[in-house]
Amino acid sequence: MRRLARLRYLRPAFGRVKGMFALAGLTTLLDSFVGLLPPYLARLLFDRGVAAGEVGTIIFYGALAAGALLFSTILGFAGQALSGIADSRFIMNVRSQALERLLQMRLEFFDRQRSGYLAEQLDQVSHLAGFTSPLIFTFAGSLIQAVGALLIMSRISAPITAVVVPFMLLFYFITSKTSVRVKETSEELMETSAQMKGSVQEMISGIAEVKQSTAEGRKSGEAAEQFAAVASREIRQSIFMGIWMGSMGFLTGAAGVVVLILCAILIVRGELSVGDYMALAGYVGVLFAPVGLFGSFVLTIQPAIVALGRLRPIFEEKTEGERGGRHRAGKLKGAVAFEDVTFAYEPAKEPVLRSCSFTVAPAECVALLGKNGAGKSTLIKLLLGFYPQYAGRIFIDGRELQEYDVVSLRKRVGVVSQHVVLFTGSLWENVKMASPEAADGAVHRALALSGCRDLFDGELDQVQVAESGKTMSGGQRQAVAIARCLLKDPDVLIFDEATAHLDSSTRSVVAHALRDVFAHKTRILITHDREMAGVADTVLLLEEGVVKSLHPKWRPDD
Questions:
Q1: DSSP-assigned letter for residue 328
Q2: Domain residues of the chain, as ranges?
Protein backbone atom coordinates (compact mmCIF):
# COMPACT_ATOMS: atom_id res chain seq x y z
CA MET A 1 0.00 0.00 0.00
CA ARG A 2 2.87 2.37 0.78
CA ARG A 3 4.33 1.82 -2.70
CA LEU A 4 0.96 2.50 -4.31
CA ALA A 5 0.64 5.69 -2.26
CA ARG A 6 3.93 6.91 -3.73
CA LEU A 7 2.40 6.76 -7.21
CA ARG A 8 0.53 9.97 -6.35
CA TYR A 9 3.80 11.82 -7.01
CA LEU A 10 3.42 10.86 -10.66
CA ARG A 11 -0.18 12.01 -11.15
CA PRO A 12 0.56 15.56 -12.36
CA ALA A 13 3.10 14.32 -14.90
CA PHE A 14 0.85 11.46 -16.05
CA GLY A 15 -2.19 13.74 -16.33
CA ARG A 16 -0.52 15.71 -19.13
CA VAL A 17 -0.13 12.64 -21.34
CA LYS A 18 -3.06 10.43 -20.30
CA GLY A 19 -4.91 11.10 -23.56
CA MET A 20 -2.01 9.79 -25.62
CA PHE A 21 -1.67 6.75 -23.36
CA ALA A 22 -5.41 6.04 -23.74
CA LEU A 23 -5.12 6.17 -27.54
CA ALA A 24 -2.10 3.86 -27.41
CA GLY A 25 -4.09 1.43 -25.25
CA LEU A 26 -7.04 1.44 -27.65
CA THR A 27 -4.75 0.77 -30.61
CA THR A 28 -3.07 -2.11 -28.76
CA LEU A 29 -6.44 -3.61 -27.80
CA LEU A 30 -7.55 -3.64 -31.44
CA ASP A 31 -4.22 -5.14 -32.49
CA SER A 32 -4.63 -7.99 -29.97
CA PHE A 33 -7.87 -9.13 -31.61
CA VAL A 34 -6.51 -8.84 -35.14
CA GLY A 35 -3.43 -10.84 -34.08
CA LEU A 36 -5.59 -13.91 -33.35
CA LEU A 37 -6.62 -14.25 -36.98
CA PRO A 38 -3.45 -15.51 -38.81
CA PRO A 39 -3.10 -18.91 -37.00
CA TYR A 40 -6.81 -19.63 -37.45
CA LEU A 41 -6.67 -18.63 -41.12
CA ALA A 42 -3.63 -20.91 -41.55
CA ARG A 43 -5.71 -23.80 -40.22
CA LEU A 44 -8.48 -23.10 -42.75
CA LEU A 45 -5.91 -22.72 -45.53
CA PHE A 46 -4.56 -26.24 -44.92
CA ASP A 47 -7.81 -28.01 -44.08
CA ARG A 48 -9.99 -26.41 -46.78
CA GLY A 49 -7.40 -25.53 -49.38
CA VAL A 50 -4.38 -27.86 -49.26
CA ALA A 51 -6.30 -30.96 -48.15
CA ALA A 52 -8.97 -30.41 -50.83
CA GLY A 53 -6.50 -29.31 -53.51
CA GLU A 54 -8.35 -26.01 -53.98
CA VAL A 55 -5.83 -23.40 -55.22
CA GLY A 56 -8.38 -20.61 -55.12
CA THR A 57 -9.17 -21.38 -51.49
CA ILE A 58 -5.45 -21.37 -50.66
CA ILE A 59 -5.02 -17.95 -52.28
CA PHE A 60 -8.15 -16.60 -50.57
CA TYR A 61 -7.15 -17.59 -47.05
CA GLY A 62 -3.53 -16.70 -47.72
CA ALA A 63 -4.56 -13.20 -48.80
CA LEU A 64 -6.75 -12.81 -45.69
CA ALA A 65 -3.85 -13.91 -43.47
CA ALA A 66 -1.46 -11.48 -45.19
CA GLY A 67 -3.98 -8.65 -44.82
CA ALA A 68 -4.44 -9.43 -41.12
CA LEU A 69 -0.67 -9.47 -40.59
CA LEU A 70 -0.28 -6.14 -42.40
CA PHE A 71 -3.09 -4.50 -40.41
CA SER A 72 -1.66 -5.91 -37.17
CA THR A 73 1.78 -4.53 -38.06
CA ILE A 74 0.34 -1.05 -38.70
CA LEU A 75 -1.61 -1.11 -35.43
CA GLY A 76 1.43 -2.37 -33.55
CA PHE A 77 3.61 0.40 -34.97
CA ALA A 78 1.02 3.06 -34.11
CA GLY A 79 0.62 1.75 -30.56
CA GLN A 80 4.39 1.58 -29.99
CA ALA A 81 4.91 5.08 -31.41
CA LEU A 82 2.13 6.63 -29.33
CA SER A 83 3.18 4.93 -26.10
CA GLY A 84 6.85 5.73 -26.76
CA ILE A 85 6.15 9.43 -27.26
CA ALA A 86 3.89 9.53 -24.20
CA ASP A 87 6.52 7.70 -22.14
CA SER A 88 9.25 10.19 -23.10
CA ARG A 89 7.04 13.16 -22.29
CA PHE A 90 6.02 11.57 -19.01
CA ILE A 91 9.67 11.18 -17.94
CA MET A 92 10.38 14.75 -19.03
CA ASN A 93 7.46 15.99 -16.91
CA VAL A 94 8.53 14.00 -13.84
CA ARG A 95 12.14 15.20 -14.14
CA SER A 96 10.98 18.83 -14.43
CA GLN A 97 8.61 18.38 -11.51
CA ALA A 98 11.33 16.81 -9.33
CA LEU A 99 13.88 19.51 -10.20
CA GLU A 100 11.34 22.26 -9.51
CA ARG A 101 10.65 20.84 -6.05
CA LEU A 102 14.35 20.25 -5.39
CA LEU A 103 15.18 23.89 -6.09
CA GLN A 104 12.43 24.98 -3.70
CA MET A 105 13.80 22.95 -0.78
CA ARG A 106 15.25 24.67 2.26
CA LEU A 107 18.99 25.10 2.39
CA GLU A 108 19.23 22.58 5.23
CA PHE A 109 18.02 19.89 2.79
CA PHE A 110 21.05 20.55 0.57
CA ASP A 111 23.35 20.61 3.60
CA ARG A 112 22.49 16.95 4.21
CA GLN A 113 23.42 15.75 0.70
CA ARG A 114 26.25 16.18 -1.76
CA SER A 115 25.26 17.95 -4.99
CA GLY A 116 26.46 15.05 -7.15
CA TYR A 117 24.28 12.64 -5.15
CA LEU A 118 21.19 14.80 -5.77
CA ALA A 119 22.06 15.13 -9.47
CA GLU A 120 22.25 11.34 -9.74
CA GLN A 121 18.84 11.02 -8.08
CA LEU A 122 17.40 13.24 -10.80
CA ASP A 123 19.13 11.14 -13.46
CA GLN A 124 17.47 8.04 -12.02
CA VAL A 125 14.05 9.47 -12.93
CA SER A 126 14.59 7.76 -16.29
CA HIS A 127 14.03 4.40 -14.55
CA LEU A 128 10.41 5.44 -13.92
CA ALA A 129 9.81 4.64 -17.58
CA GLY A 130 9.09 1.14 -16.29
CA PHE A 131 5.67 2.39 -15.11
CA THR A 132 4.71 3.76 -18.54
CA SER A 133 6.81 1.65 -20.87
CA PRO A 134 5.31 0.60 -24.22
CA LEU A 135 5.92 -2.90 -22.85
CA ILE A 136 2.83 -2.43 -20.66
CA PHE A 137 0.57 -2.06 -23.68
CA THR A 138 2.31 -4.91 -25.47
CA PHE A 139 1.84 -7.11 -22.40
CA ALA A 140 -1.85 -6.15 -22.04
CA GLY A 141 -2.48 -6.89 -25.72
CA SER A 142 -0.64 -10.21 -25.55
CA LEU A 143 -2.64 -11.17 -22.46
CA ILE A 144 -5.89 -10.63 -24.36
CA GLN A 145 -4.50 -12.65 -27.26
CA ALA A 146 -3.41 -15.41 -24.88
CA VAL A 147 -6.93 -15.74 -23.44
CA GLY A 148 -8.34 -15.98 -26.95
CA ALA A 149 -5.63 -18.44 -28.00
CA LEU A 150 -6.29 -20.62 -24.93
CA LEU A 151 -10.01 -20.82 -25.77
CA ILE A 152 -9.34 -21.69 -29.42
CA MET A 153 -6.65 -24.26 -28.49
CA SER A 154 -8.94 -25.96 -26.00
CA ARG A 155 -11.60 -26.33 -28.72
CA ILE A 156 -9.04 -27.79 -31.16
CA SER A 157 -7.32 -30.14 -28.66
CA ALA A 158 -7.90 -30.01 -24.90
CA PRO A 159 -5.08 -32.55 -24.10
CA ILE A 160 -2.39 -30.54 -25.86
CA THR A 161 -3.64 -27.35 -24.18
CA ALA A 162 -3.42 -29.06 -20.79
CA VAL A 163 0.22 -30.07 -21.47
CA VAL A 164 1.26 -26.51 -22.36
CA VAL A 165 -0.18 -24.85 -19.20
CA PRO A 166 2.39 -26.31 -16.71
CA PHE A 167 5.21 -24.79 -18.77
CA MET A 168 3.57 -21.39 -18.30
CA LEU A 169 3.27 -21.86 -14.53
CA LEU A 170 6.93 -22.92 -14.25
CA PHE A 171 7.99 -19.89 -16.24
CA TYR A 172 5.96 -17.60 -13.92
CA PHE A 173 7.63 -19.15 -10.86
CA ILE A 174 11.15 -18.52 -12.23
CA THR A 175 10.23 -14.94 -13.15
CA SER A 176 8.87 -14.12 -9.68
CA LYS A 177 12.03 -15.43 -7.98
CA THR A 178 14.35 -13.60 -10.39
CA SER A 179 12.48 -10.28 -10.00
CA VAL A 180 13.17 -10.22 -6.25
CA ARG A 181 16.91 -10.49 -6.89
CA VAL A 182 16.78 -7.82 -9.59
CA LYS A 183 15.00 -5.41 -7.21
CA GLU A 184 17.66 -5.94 -4.53
CA THR A 185 20.54 -5.38 -6.95
CA SER A 186 18.78 -2.34 -8.45
CA GLU A 187 18.54 -0.71 -5.01
CA GLU A 188 22.21 -1.36 -4.32
CA LEU A 189 23.27 -0.23 -7.80
CA MET A 190 21.37 3.08 -7.65
CA GLU A 191 22.67 3.96 -4.19
CA THR A 192 26.26 3.06 -5.09
CA SER A 193 26.03 5.02 -8.36
CA ALA A 194 24.71 8.10 -6.54
CA GLN A 195 27.51 7.92 -3.96
CA MET A 196 30.09 7.51 -6.73
CA LYS A 197 28.78 10.48 -8.72
CA GLY A 198 28.74 12.65 -5.60
CA SER A 199 32.37 11.81 -4.82
CA VAL A 200 33.56 12.39 -8.39
CA GLN A 201 31.77 15.73 -8.67
CA GLU A 202 33.17 16.83 -5.32
CA MET A 203 36.67 15.79 -6.44
CA ILE A 204 36.45 17.71 -9.73
CA SER A 205 35.02 20.86 -8.13
CA GLY A 206 37.88 20.83 -5.63
CA ILE A 207 40.60 19.93 -8.14
CA ALA A 208 42.80 22.88 -7.16
CA GLU A 209 42.95 21.67 -3.56
CA VAL A 210 43.54 18.08 -4.69
CA LYS A 211 46.53 19.17 -6.75
CA GLN A 212 47.82 21.44 -4.04
CA SER A 213 47.75 18.53 -1.60
CA THR A 214 49.27 16.19 -4.23
CA ALA A 215 46.35 13.86 -3.53
CA GLU A 216 45.65 12.86 -7.15
CA GLY A 217 46.78 9.27 -6.60
CA ARG A 218 44.82 8.78 -3.40
CA LYS A 219 41.66 10.33 -4.79
CA SER A 220 41.83 8.34 -8.03
CA GLY A 221 42.31 5.20 -5.93
CA GLU A 222 39.18 5.99 -3.90
CA ALA A 223 37.26 6.61 -7.11
CA ALA A 224 38.51 3.32 -8.58
CA GLU A 225 37.13 1.46 -5.55
CA GLN A 226 33.73 3.09 -6.08
CA PHE A 227 33.82 2.28 -9.80
CA ALA A 228 34.55 -1.34 -8.90
CA ALA A 229 31.61 -1.42 -6.47
CA VAL A 230 29.27 -0.13 -9.19
CA ALA A 231 30.65 -2.66 -11.73
CA SER A 232 30.19 -5.51 -9.23
CA ARG A 233 26.51 -4.70 -8.78
CA GLU A 234 26.00 -4.29 -12.52
CA ILE A 235 27.50 -7.76 -13.05
CA ARG A 236 25.17 -9.28 -10.45
CA GLN A 237 22.17 -7.70 -12.13
CA SER A 238 23.33 -8.96 -15.54
CA ILE A 239 23.69 -12.51 -14.17
CA PHE A 240 20.11 -12.58 -12.87
CA MET A 241 18.82 -11.15 -16.14
CA GLY A 242 20.81 -13.79 -18.04
CA ILE A 243 19.33 -16.59 -15.92
CA TRP A 244 15.85 -15.35 -16.64
CA MET A 245 16.37 -14.95 -20.39
CA GLY A 246 17.98 -18.39 -20.65
CA SER A 247 15.08 -19.98 -18.79
CA MET A 248 12.58 -18.22 -21.05
CA GLY A 249 14.27 -19.51 -24.19
CA PHE A 250 14.53 -23.05 -22.87
CA LEU A 251 10.93 -23.34 -21.67
CA THR A 252 9.48 -21.80 -24.84
CA GLY A 253 11.53 -24.16 -27.00
CA ALA A 254 10.69 -27.18 -24.86
CA ALA A 255 6.97 -26.44 -25.05
CA GLY A 256 7.17 -26.14 -28.82
CA VAL A 257 8.93 -29.52 -29.11
CA VAL A 258 6.35 -31.22 -26.86
CA VAL A 259 3.48 -29.78 -28.92
CA LEU A 260 5.18 -30.93 -32.12
CA ILE A 261 5.60 -34.52 -30.83
CA LEU A 262 2.04 -34.78 -29.51
CA CYS A 263 0.52 -33.29 -32.65
CA ALA A 264 2.52 -35.67 -34.83
CA ILE A 265 1.23 -38.64 -32.84
CA LEU A 266 -2.38 -37.40 -33.02
CA ILE A 267 -2.07 -36.72 -36.77
CA VAL A 268 -0.81 -40.29 -37.33
CA ARG A 269 -3.78 -41.58 -35.32
CA GLY A 270 -6.16 -39.46 -37.39
CA GLU A 271 -7.28 -37.47 -34.34
CA LEU A 272 -5.79 -34.18 -35.59
CA SER A 273 -5.43 -32.53 -38.99
CA VAL A 274 -2.35 -30.77 -40.36
CA GLY A 275 -4.36 -27.53 -40.23
CA ASP A 276 -5.04 -28.13 -36.54
CA TYR A 277 -1.30 -28.53 -35.94
CA MET A 278 -0.52 -25.30 -37.81
CA ALA A 279 -3.06 -23.45 -35.68
CA LEU A 280 -1.84 -25.02 -32.42
CA ALA A 281 1.81 -24.29 -33.24
CA GLY A 282 0.91 -20.67 -33.96
CA TYR A 283 -1.16 -20.28 -30.81
CA VAL A 284 1.53 -21.81 -28.56
CA GLY A 285 3.71 -18.82 -29.43
CA VAL A 286 0.78 -16.49 -28.69
CA LEU A 287 0.15 -18.30 -25.40
CA PHE A 288 3.75 -17.92 -24.23
CA ALA A 289 4.08 -14.28 -25.34
CA PRO A 290 2.42 -12.73 -22.23
CA VAL A 291 4.42 -15.01 -19.92
CA GLY A 292 7.66 -13.83 -21.49
CA LEU A 293 6.48 -10.22 -21.58
CA PHE A 294 5.33 -10.48 -17.98
CA GLY A 295 8.86 -11.47 -17.03
CA SER A 296 10.28 -8.54 -18.99
CA PHE A 297 7.73 -6.22 -17.41
CA VAL A 298 8.49 -7.41 -13.88
CA LEU A 299 12.23 -7.03 -14.41
CA THR A 300 11.67 -3.57 -15.91
CA ILE A 301 9.31 -2.41 -13.16
CA GLN A 302 11.69 -3.28 -10.30
CA PRO A 303 14.19 -0.48 -11.06
CA ALA A 304 11.19 1.87 -11.47
CA ILE A 305 9.91 0.96 -7.98
CA VAL A 306 13.39 1.54 -6.53
CA ALA A 307 13.74 4.88 -8.34
CA LEU A 308 10.33 6.00 -7.07
CA GLY A 309 11.38 5.20 -3.51
CA ARG A 310 14.63 7.15 -3.94
CA LEU A 311 12.66 10.20 -5.12
CA ARG A 312 10.52 10.08 -1.98
CA PRO A 313 12.54 12.71 -0.03
CA ILE A 314 12.14 15.21 -2.87
CA PHE A 315 8.38 14.71 -3.17
CA GLU A 316 7.53 14.19 0.52
CA GLU A 317 9.70 16.80 2.23
CA LYS A 318 7.98 20.16 2.31
CA THR A 319 9.39 22.98 0.22
CA GLU A 320 10.06 26.51 1.46
CA GLY A 321 6.73 27.65 0.05
CA GLU A 322 4.81 24.83 1.75
CA ARG A 323 6.42 25.52 5.12
CA GLY A 324 6.77 29.31 5.07
CA GLY A 325 4.41 32.21 5.64
CA ARG A 326 1.79 33.49 3.22
CA HIS A 327 2.42 37.25 3.25
CA ARG A 328 3.78 38.31 -0.13
CA ALA A 329 6.39 41.05 0.11
CA GLY A 330 5.83 44.13 -2.00
CA LYS A 331 8.13 47.13 -2.08
CA LEU A 332 9.94 47.36 1.28
CA LYS A 333 10.94 50.42 3.29
CA GLY A 334 14.02 48.45 4.33
CA ALA A 335 13.75 48.45 8.13
CA VAL A 336 15.49 45.38 9.64
CA ALA A 337 15.55 44.29 13.29
CA PHE A 338 17.04 41.28 15.08
CA GLU A 339 15.70 40.66 18.60
CA ASP A 340 17.54 38.20 20.83
CA VAL A 341 18.28 35.80 17.93
CA THR A 342 20.10 32.54 18.71
CA PHE A 343 20.89 29.97 16.04
CA ALA A 344 22.74 26.65 15.60
CA TYR A 345 22.93 24.70 12.33
CA GLU A 346 22.24 21.49 14.25
CA PRO A 347 20.38 21.32 17.59
CA ALA A 348 23.14 19.38 19.34
CA LYS A 349 25.89 21.76 18.26
CA GLU A 350 27.15 25.00 19.77
CA PRO A 351 25.14 28.07 18.64
CA VAL A 352 26.74 30.18 15.92
CA LEU A 353 24.75 33.25 17.02
CA ARG A 354 23.85 34.05 20.62
CA SER A 355 21.13 36.52 21.61
CA CYS A 356 21.91 38.87 18.71
CA SER A 357 20.01 42.15 18.68
CA PHE A 358 20.42 45.16 16.39
CA THR A 359 18.39 47.38 14.05
CA VAL A 360 18.92 48.86 10.61
CA ALA A 361 16.89 51.92 9.61
CA PRO A 362 15.56 52.42 6.06
CA ALA A 363 18.30 53.66 3.65
CA GLU A 364 20.94 53.22 6.39
CA CYS A 365 24.30 51.60 5.64
CA VAL A 366 25.38 49.26 8.45
CA ALA A 367 28.65 47.34 8.53
CA LEU A 368 28.90 44.05 10.41
CA LEU A 369 32.55 43.69 11.29
CA GLY A 370 34.08 40.45 12.53
CA LYS A 371 36.70 37.79 12.03
CA ASN A 372 36.24 34.74 9.84
CA GLY A 373 33.90 32.28 11.53
CA ALA A 374 32.30 34.91 13.76
CA GLY A 375 28.86 34.21 12.25
CA LYS A 376 28.51 37.15 9.88
CA SER A 377 27.41 35.15 6.83
CA THR A 378 25.15 33.00 9.01
CA LEU A 379 23.32 36.12 10.10
CA ILE A 380 22.65 37.03 6.48
CA LYS A 381 21.43 33.51 5.71
CA LEU A 382 18.85 33.94 8.46
CA LEU A 383 17.79 37.31 7.04
CA LEU A 384 17.24 35.64 3.65
CA GLY A 385 15.07 32.94 5.25
CA PHE A 386 17.43 30.07 4.46
CA TYR A 387 17.25 28.66 8.01
CA PRO A 388 13.95 29.29 9.85
CA GLN A 389 14.83 27.23 12.96
CA TYR A 390 16.15 30.17 15.00
CA ALA A 391 15.19 31.34 18.48
CA GLY A 392 14.18 34.97 18.93
CA ARG A 393 12.60 37.21 16.32
CA ILE A 394 13.63 38.85 13.04
CA PHE A 395 11.56 41.72 11.68
CA ILE A 396 11.48 43.27 8.22
CA ASP A 397 9.36 46.42 8.03
CA GLY A 398 7.83 45.46 11.37
CA ARG A 399 6.64 42.02 10.25
CA GLU A 400 8.17 38.79 11.55
CA LEU A 401 10.33 37.09 8.91
CA GLN A 402 8.47 33.77 9.14
CA GLU A 403 5.19 35.44 8.19
CA TYR A 404 6.61 36.29 4.75
CA ASP A 405 6.51 34.18 1.64
CA VAL A 406 10.31 33.85 1.42
CA VAL A 407 10.44 33.72 -2.39
CA SER A 408 8.66 37.07 -2.72
CA LEU A 409 10.86 38.49 0.05
CA ARG A 410 14.10 37.47 -1.65
CA LYS A 411 12.98 39.31 -4.77
CA ARG A 412 13.23 42.52 -2.72
CA VAL A 413 16.69 41.70 -1.32
CA GLY A 414 19.89 41.84 -3.38
CA VAL A 415 23.16 40.14 -2.49
CA VAL A 416 26.68 40.93 -3.70
CA SER A 417 28.79 38.04 -2.44
CA GLN A 418 32.46 37.16 -2.26
CA HIS A 419 31.58 34.06 -4.29
CA VAL A 420 29.77 35.35 -7.36
CA VAL A 421 28.02 32.52 -9.20
CA LEU A 422 28.29 32.90 -12.98
CA PHE A 423 26.94 30.62 -15.67
CA THR A 424 28.21 29.62 -19.10
CA GLY A 425 26.76 32.00 -21.69
CA SER A 426 26.93 35.69 -22.42
CA LEU A 427 27.61 38.48 -19.94
CA TRP A 428 24.27 39.95 -20.95
CA GLU A 429 22.43 36.73 -20.01
CA ASN A 430 24.26 36.51 -16.68
CA VAL A 431 23.15 40.01 -15.73
CA LYS A 432 19.61 39.72 -17.09
CA MET A 433 18.92 36.56 -15.06
CA ALA A 434 18.29 38.93 -12.11
CA SER A 435 15.24 40.29 -13.95
CA PRO A 436 14.40 38.33 -17.13
CA GLU A 437 11.58 40.71 -18.06
CA ALA A 438 13.82 43.83 -17.90
CA ALA A 439 14.06 46.03 -20.99
CA ASP A 440 17.36 46.27 -22.87
CA GLY A 441 17.74 49.89 -21.82
CA ALA A 442 17.62 48.90 -18.15
CA VAL A 443 20.30 46.26 -18.73
CA HIS A 444 22.56 48.80 -20.47
CA ARG A 445 22.10 51.21 -17.56
CA ALA A 446 22.95 48.51 -15.00
CA LEU A 447 26.09 47.55 -16.91
CA ALA A 448 27.20 51.19 -17.11
CA LEU A 449 26.57 52.09 -13.45
CA SER A 450 28.23 48.90 -12.18
CA GLY A 451 31.49 49.69 -13.97
CA CYS A 452 31.24 46.73 -16.38
CA ARG A 453 31.82 49.03 -19.37
CA ASP A 454 35.20 50.00 -17.95
CA LEU A 455 36.23 46.47 -16.98
CA PHE A 456 35.27 44.54 -20.14
CA ASP A 457 36.47 45.02 -23.70
CA GLY A 458 34.17 45.19 -26.71
CA GLU A 459 30.38 45.10 -26.93
CA LEU A 460 29.02 43.85 -23.60
CA ASP A 461 26.21 41.85 -25.21
CA GLN A 462 28.88 39.88 -27.11
CA VAL A 463 31.15 39.09 -24.13
CA GLN A 464 31.09 35.36 -23.34
CA VAL A 465 31.40 33.93 -19.82
CA ALA A 466 33.24 30.63 -19.35
CA GLU A 467 32.07 27.97 -16.89
CA SER A 468 31.72 29.55 -13.41
CA GLY A 469 33.40 32.70 -14.83
CA LYS A 470 36.81 31.13 -14.27
CA THR A 471 38.51 33.37 -16.87
CA MET A 472 37.29 36.61 -15.22
CA SER A 473 39.10 38.71 -12.64
CA GLY A 474 37.71 39.32 -9.16
CA GLY A 475 36.78 42.89 -10.08
CA GLN A 476 34.90 41.77 -13.18
CA ARG A 477 32.95 39.21 -11.19
CA GLN A 478 31.98 41.77 -8.55
CA ALA A 479 30.95 44.26 -11.23
CA VAL A 480 28.60 41.64 -12.72
CA ALA A 481 27.12 40.99 -9.26
CA ILE A 482 26.54 44.73 -8.77
CA ALA A 483 24.94 44.97 -12.23
CA ARG A 484 22.55 42.18 -11.27
CA CYS A 485 21.55 44.06 -8.13
CA LEU A 486 20.99 47.25 -10.09
CA LEU A 487 18.75 45.43 -12.55
CA LYS A 488 16.88 43.64 -9.79
CA ASP A 489 16.32 46.98 -8.02
CA PRO A 490 15.98 45.49 -4.50
CA ASP A 491 15.00 47.46 -1.39
CA VAL A 492 17.62 45.87 0.87
CA LEU A 493 21.19 45.24 -0.28
CA ILE A 494 23.66 42.87 1.32
CA PHE A 495 27.38 42.97 0.53
CA ASP A 496 28.70 39.69 1.93
CA GLU A 497 32.52 39.86 2.06
CA ALA A 498 32.28 41.43 -1.39
CA THR A 499 35.82 42.90 -1.20
CA ALA A 500 37.63 39.85 0.15
CA HIS A 501 40.83 39.03 -1.76
CA LEU A 502 40.38 42.04 -4.07
CA ASP A 503 42.99 44.69 -4.83
CA SER A 504 42.47 48.35 -3.98
CA SER A 505 41.29 49.40 -7.46
CA THR A 506 38.70 46.63 -7.52
CA ARG A 507 37.56 47.38 -3.98
CA SER A 508 36.83 50.92 -5.09
CA VAL A 509 34.11 49.50 -7.41
CA VAL A 510 32.30 48.05 -4.38
CA ALA A 511 32.88 51.16 -2.25
CA HIS A 512 31.44 53.36 -5.01
CA ALA A 513 28.37 51.13 -5.21
CA LEU A 514 27.87 51.34 -1.45
CA ARG A 515 28.30 55.11 -1.18
CA ASP A 516 26.75 56.36 -4.39
CA VAL A 517 24.98 53.85 -6.63
CA PHE A 518 22.81 52.37 -3.84
CA ALA A 519 22.73 55.41 -1.54
CA HIS A 520 18.90 55.37 -1.31
CA LYS A 521 18.76 51.66 -0.35
CA THR A 522 19.14 49.88 2.97
CA ARG A 523 22.66 48.42 2.87
CA ILE A 524 24.23 45.78 5.09
CA LEU A 525 27.96 45.28 4.64
CA ILE A 526 29.45 42.04 5.95
CA THR A 527 33.21 42.33 6.20
CA HIS A 528 36.34 41.80 8.27
CA ASP A 529 37.97 44.74 6.46
CA ARG A 530 38.00 47.72 8.87
CA GLU A 531 38.79 50.20 6.10
CA MET A 532 35.78 49.10 4.05
CA ALA A 533 33.60 49.19 7.17
CA GLY A 534 34.42 52.89 7.47
CA VAL A 535 32.12 53.56 4.49
CA ALA A 536 29.08 52.62 6.61
CA ASP A 537 26.89 54.94 8.72
CA THR A 538 26.93 52.48 11.61
CA VAL A 539 29.45 49.76 12.49
CA LEU A 540 28.53 46.67 14.52
CA LEU A 541 31.07 44.18 15.80
CA LEU A 542 30.23 40.46 15.76
CA GLU A 543 32.38 38.44 18.17
CA GLU A 544 31.79 34.81 19.11
CA GLY A 545 28.21 35.00 17.89
CA VAL A 546 27.32 38.17 19.79
CA VAL A 547 26.63 41.57 18.17
CA LYS A 548 28.20 44.61 19.85
CA SER A 549 27.69 48.24 18.85
CA LEU A 550 30.83 50.30 18.28
CA HIS A 551 31.14 53.89 19.45
CA PRO A 552 29.76 56.40 16.89
CA LYS A 553 33.22 58.04 16.70
CA TRP A 554 34.89 54.73 15.83
CA ARG A 555 37.46 54.94 13.04
CA PRO A 556 38.95 52.15 10.89
CA ASP A 557 42.35 52.49 12.52
CA ASP A 558 40.95 52.09 16.08
A1: P
A2: 2-320, 325-549
